[in-house]
């Protein structure tokens, strides 16, 4: 089987202006399409600043419906360029229910599916529980013209259960739109440990499931809004976006600067890897019941 797929990540420093961010991202999407990319992943909450640094009611004004302005914009681009686009929306489901939602626009412009972020962090500078209701769709891959996409979002990337469930449901690629960075007060050794851990855990998902992983982060410093209730001066998004194959091997890796990251996936390789490392065959599903417990006392 020969199944090659050219993919791209847009690692960008996102301005706090929706039209400016759309213009920036659209230019980069067009660059990718001109290089025969067929699947492109954007960072988490790419329509403006990472607003979760503070708890402020007016930030809910950023939310929009699905379908809505962002999916309409991405749909038109996907159809025009014949490319699958994976984006991110602050979704207003109804008054009082908002989600951090990944959206997939197929190459014909149709909305192939959505994924609502399941794991919601609540840490200094990352006040996401104030804004987002946990997802209720579950871990279901999204069928597209380029394959079945296991779309997860940021904090989800630390949980092996999420990646495993996507893989068990038939995902062919794991994708993580992300907004993660350092507290500027951290020393360099702590920064290095955090970045290494972030890349390592996701590479582990690739290995454990025999699937390629695409992880696309924001980059650049975003100051903490005045009056924000956290100890940080802002978040220094570390970039570091990457693409791995099914053995966790780096196919492409970004540094800190904005970058269009491109690689070619060999989806047939996943089949071969699973033959030599048959983790699914040897799983002791009869002994895993305690995984549904919070803690084993």
From TrEMBL:
Its GO biological process terms?
putrescine biosynthetic process from arginine
Q: Could you tell me which residue ranges the CN hydrolase domain spans?
A: 5-267
A GO molecular function annotation here is:
acyltransferase activity
Q: Which PROSITE patterns match?
A: CN_HYDROLASE (PS50263)
Q: Which Pfam families match?
A: CN_hydrolase
Q: Which InterPro entries match?
A: Aliph_Amidase/BUP, C-N_Hydrolase, C-N_Hydrolase_sf
Give start-end ranges for the coiled-coil region(s): none
Gene3D superfamilies, alphabetically? Carbon-nitrogen hydrolase
Q: Which SUPFAM superfamilies match?
A: Carbon-nitrogen hydrolase
CDD domains attached here? CPA (cd07573)
Which UniProt key words apply to this protein? Acyltransferase, Hydrolase, Transferase
Can the keyword Metal-binding be found in this entry's annotation? no
For this entry, the protein name equals Acyltransferase
Name the species this protein comes from: Pelagibaculum spongiae
